[in-house]
Design goal:
Blueprint: H1 3-23, E1 32-37, H2 42-57, E2 61-66, H3 73-84, E3 91-93, H4 96-104, H5 112-118, H6 120-123, H7 126-132, E4 133-134, E5 137-138, E6 140-142, E7 146-147, E8 150-153, H8 155-161, H9 169-181, E9 185-187, H10 193-218, H11 222-226, H12 228-239, H13 253-262, E10 265-269, H14 274-280, E11 290-293, E12 301-304, E13 307-310, H15 315-329, H16 331-341, H17 357-371, E14 375-377, H18 387-402, H19 408-421
Parallel strand pairs: 1-2, 1-3, 9-10, 12-14
Antiparallel strand pairs: 3-13, 4-5, 6-13, 7-12, 8-10, 8-11
The chain binds beta-D-galactopyranose.
Length: 423
């Protein structure tokens, strides 16, 4: 999104609005929030709309600041330029350690009054609450919990190929071959850095397990980043290219999901925002499409918590912002939003009766893996390391994946450098 064009339009609009306001009666609906997010696919937009409608039902205005681009890289670039020009939105989808980075810049406003009135400390799991606080104050509110390590499949394609849902990486490769022989693309993928990183972290989890994942992608341990297990993860990741098609370069993730929906491709490795696309297409989990933990990762849960961080704003905008924060954790929003988004609620006390079998499995696995040390933060989705480290790792992963001749050992060496350079 060209940010200059956008701010130009905003300025024009602001001037026009100011001119109109000086002539007209005061608006009954003046308090407004502007919310930056990147929820622009079919399923994502349906989910974002839930919040807009709830705000409007309470008499607040909603200015949608949607910046297309899965994974949010473009959205973050646009947000930075808006914030630098001293004009941030009221709220923005900012996640994990990045919340602290914005907090350190002194740009976030606190939500302690709402948090206290609504009892957030009791509602939220402590690990989630921790991420939402800066300097002891709530500055963000969680909308959901996404699981990244999922495999999605079209059951008709699997049947045509005579294979079952794979549960190990070996089974994934052999099912993939059978699907190819039956005339379909085995694995739908979009060649974008964040999608490559999403598949990579899932494969690394499958080959190395949660402890290795934690050492390499969270603690940035040099031996883990540059060692044999990393080489194995990289080599296995690269082999997955054999299951992908030649036109994947630059493809958006939701287009890849639609290939599974339409049955031109058999499977996709992607977080459960993909479920939002199946849901938007009117399909039923377990019948029209299948979900399972990504092969080899049944005992792990890579979490990705979407949250809205609040910028320091004043007056009516602050009032609207506080209402937004309150609504986000209320059961009505948590249920409706997450049914559309494919994720599970951020608060564990809600009845999951309305949710489909994939979401119910997600909730159970979240709780089970939390007890068994299987819960890991997603590197690809900004939950594990700061943005500069994440960006440097993305570069290595994507360059290696697309290179004809880079050896896995060389990529592993670059991983070590990426983590060091960013420190
Ligand atoms: C993730 C985000 C999800 C989903 C996905 C694809 O990073 O947490 O909410 O939007 O990107 O855009």
């Amino acid at each position: 999104m060209p940010s200059f064009a956008r701010s130009f339009n905003k300025t024009t609009l602001a001037l026009a609005t100011a001119a109109a306001a000086s002539l007209a009666l005061p608006s009954a609906n003046a308090a407004e929030v502007e919310v930056l997010h990147w929820w622009t696919s079919g399923g994502e937009a349906r989910a974002a709309n839930v919040l807009k409608e709830l705000m409007e039902a309470e008499g607040y205005g909603w200015e949608d600041f949607a910046v297309a681009g899965g994974g949010g890289e473009t959205a973050m670039t646009v947000l930075k330029s808006r914030a630098m020009s001293g004009n941030p939105p009221s709220a923005a989808q900012i996640k994990g350690p990045e919340i602290q980075e914005w907090g350190e810049l002194g740009l976030l406003g606190e939500l302690d009054e709402v948090a206290e009135a609504e009892g957030w400390d009791e509602l939220l799991p402590p690990t989630v609450a921790e991420v939402m606080r800066h300097d002891g104050s709530y500055v963000a509110v969680p909308v959901n919990v996404h699981r990244v390590n999922w495999l999605w499949a079209n059951p008709e394609v699997l049947e045509a190929a005579g294979v079952e849902m794979p549960t190990t990486l070996d089974e994934l490769f052999s099912a993939g071959e059978a699907i190819r022989e039956a005339g379909y693309i085995p694995l739908a993928h979009g060649g974008q850095a964040w999608q490559d990183a999403t598949v990579f972290e899932t494969v690394l989890l499958a080959t190395g397990g949660t402890e290795f994942y934690q050492q390499a992608l969270v603690e940035l341990d040099e031996e883990a980043l540059g060692g044999e297990q990393m080489v194995e993860a990289l080599e296995t990741f690269k082999r997955l290219r054999e299951l992908m098609d030649d036109d994947m370069s630059g493809r958006d993730w939701n287009i890849a999901t639609s290939m599974v929906i339409e049955g031109t491709a058999g499977m996709q490795l992607m977080g459960d925002w993909a479920k939002g696309e199946f849901t938007a297409a009117g399909l039923t989990a377990g019948e029209d499409y299948l979900c399972a933990a990504a092969p080899g990762t049944q005992d792990a849960f890579t979490f990705n918590i979407d949250s809205l961080a609040m910028f320091r704003v004043e007056g009516e905008e602050r009032e609207a912002q506080q209402a937004l924060a309150r609504l986000v954790l209320e059961p009505t929003f948590q249920e409706a939003f997450n049914l559309a988004k494919g994720s599970i609620p951020a608060r564990p006390d809600l009845d999951m009766g309305e949710f489909d079998s994939c979401a119910q499995q997600s909730m159970q696995d979240f709780q089970r893996t939390a007890e068994e040390d299987g819960l890991v933060p997603s590197m690809a989705h900004g939950m594990a390391v700061r943005a500069d480290v994440q960006g440097a790792i993305f570069d290595v992963v994507t360059n290696y994946f697309n290179s004809r001749d880079m050896a896995a050992e060389e990529a592993a060496r670059r991983m070590v450098n990426a983590a060091q350079a960013a420190l």
